Amino acid sequence: MENVTVIDHPLVKRDLTLLRDKKTPSNQFRAILRRMASLMAYEVTRDLNIKEIGIKTPLEKTKGNIVSQPIVLVPILRAGLGLVGGFVEVIPDARVGHIGLYRDEDTLRPVDYYFKVPKNLKNALVLVLDPMLATGGSGSAAISYLKEKGAQSIRFVSLVAAPEGVRTISKAHPDVKMYTCSLDRGLNQRGYILPGLGDAGDRMFGTE
Ligand code: PRP
Ligand code: URA
To answer: What is the CA(124)–ligand 1 centre distance, in A?
Structure first.
C-alpha cells in the first residue's frame, strides 16, 4: 500500500506486543503508548525541512539547524490523547489542536462533538494522531475538517491500521501520507481491528 509507511523498529514491535496483550493494565498501557509515540515521532518527522543557522559554542562559531516548518499535532479524542505526550516530548514547540469524534456503534459512522485547532494551519505540517485506523471514517472526517480549516500538509499517524481504513483514507485523501506500526489483517463484524488491541480509548482510560 503505497501511501503507508510501516514503522517496524524493534523497540516499536516490542511495545506494540505489550499493548496488544489483554493482560496489560491501563496504567502500563498509557506509559507504553507514550513511549511508543516518541519513537514514532522520530520516524514521522524524518524528512522535516530544516534551516541552517549560525551559533556560538563556548569555543567557536559553528553552524546549526532549526526546523523550518511549524508542526501542529491534532489528536482525535479520546484515544489520540494517549499519543500527544510522547510527540510533545520530542517536538516541544508543537501546537496542539483537538478533534472530538466517536464511532456510532451501529452504523460505525463518526459522530463529531468538538473541534478546536490553532490558526494558520496553511504553512504547518499537521500530524493527525489516533491509535486506531479501522474503517477510516473518523480519520477521513478529521482530515476533511482540517483541510476546510486551511491545512495543506497532513500526515495521519496510527498505531494499528486495518487495510479497509488505509483504503478509505487513500481514496478520499490521496495527498495524505499514513504512518502505522502495524498493518493488521482486517475488521470483525463490529468494526474492530483484528488482531488489533481492542478498544484503545477504553483500555487507556479504564472505561471498559
Ligand atoms: C476509535 C479510535 C478511532 C476510531 C477508529 O475511537 O480511537 O477514533 O475508533 O475507527 P474508524 O476508523 O472505524 O472510524 P472511538 O469511536 O472508540 O472513540 P473513543 O476514542 O472516544 O473511545
Ligand atoms: N476503535 C478501537 O479503539 N479499536 C478498534 O479495533 C477499532 C476502532
So the answer is: 25
Residue 61 within a domain: no
- Whether the full predicted model's pTM is greater than 0.85, yes or no, is yes
- For the chain, how many structural domains are there in total? 1
Confirm or reject: Cβ of 178 under 6 Å from ligand 1.
no
Beta bridge partner(s), residue 6: 180
Residues identified as active-site: 103, 107, 199, 202
Query: In terms of residue numbers, what domain contains 200?
Result: 4-47+68-205
Residue 2 has pLDDT above 80, yes or no: no
Q: What is the mean pLDDT of residues 163-186?
A: 98
12 lines ligand 1 (CB under 6 A): no
**Grid cell of 84 as nine digits:** 500527544
The protein residue with its alpha carbon nearest to ligand 2, atom 7, reads 192
Nearest-ligand number for the alpha carbon of 77: 1
Distances (CA, A) of 141 to 8, 108, 172, 202, 203: 27, 13, 10, 22, 24
Q: CA 114 → CA 32, 118, 131, distances in Å?
A: 27, 14, 18
Question: Which residue has the CA at smallest separation from atom 22 of ligand 1?
Answer: 201
Q: What is the CATH number of the domain that holds 188?
A: 3.40.50.2020
Please write the tens of the pLDDT for every residue from 61-110. 999 999 999 999 999 999 999 999 999 999 999 999 999 999 999 999 99
